[in-house]
Amino acid sequence: MTRKIIENKAQCKKCQDIIQSKSTIELKRCSCGSIAVDGGLDYIKRLGNLDDIIELTKYEGDEIMAEEKVEYCTCEKLERVYTDMDDFGYWNVCDLCGKIVENTYEYFDELND
Questions:
Q1: Any idea where the domains of the chain sit in the sequence?
Q2: What is the pLDDT of residues 28-44, one digit of tens each?
Q3: Considering the entire predicted model, what is its pTM?
């Protein structure tokens, strides 16, 4: 399942610039040169230091998903987790309570090539 991109943009953690690619061949760099975005509404491509990226891309239907409240794991001690995924990445889920472990989302490497 491929989600439709409605805004392809990111923010640089170093210079705080928000950059957006609006067409397939429009590569945009932040002012400090640490990151770049490309792909317009056809695909997501990130270049540069990936640790400096705050992802701001929006997809069709995100508004609906944003209304759903995500409950994160609050277990005192994580003993076992399993991985769940979507089209773009994966995250850890607590095996005991079945809730998402906060701040574990990772994008697949193919998106960053």
A1: 1-68, 69-105
A2: 999 999 999 999 999 99
A3: 0.56
